Amino acid sequence: MPTVGIVNLHIREDFAPLMLVMSGPAKNRPIRSLAEIADALLAAWPTDDGEEYIAAVQACLDAIQGNIPAKAARAALIRAAEEAEISVIAVVH
């Protein structure tokens, strides 16, 4: 698959926002962009283990590199949240 190129991490077009309900200092964490997915996974995730977690990190990297759409990384994040028992709230905008 050809690489489209590095994308703008903060672009919010075609990305339905969501809220992760986490415990600890992270608490409620809005996710509106690839940058916020990466930050949640790498800086605030309660574990660095799990099949869906690893898949979400890879999907985020793939989306940043322009190989998959941002919404695919969003879907991977939701699966990782379910695996980690983190509640996800869809945000209507």
Polypeptide structure, described:
The protein has 3 helices and 3 strands. It has helices at 34-44, 51-64, 70-83, and strands spanning 18-21, 28-31, 87-90. It has a 3-stranded antiparallel β-sheet, with helices on one face. Strand 1 and strand 2 form a beta hairpin. Helix 1 (34-44) runs antiparallel to helix 2 (51-64). The longest helix has 14 residues, at 51-64. The protein is globular, with a radius of gyration of 12 Å. The termini are far apart. 25% of the residues are buried.
Structural shape: globular
Annotation, overall tally of beta strands: 3
Major sheet strand order? 2-1-3
Average per-residue pLDDT, rounded, comes to 86
Features:
single chain, 93 residues, alpha+beta
A few lines on this structure:
It is built from three helices and three strands. By secondary structure, the chain is of the alpha+beta class.
Give the secondary structure arrangement, pairings included.
Layout (H helix, E strand, L loop, with lengths): L17 E4 L6 E4 L2 H11 L6 H14 L5 H14 L3 E4 L3
Antiparallel strand pairs: 1-2, 1-3
Helix pairs in contact: 1-2, 2-3
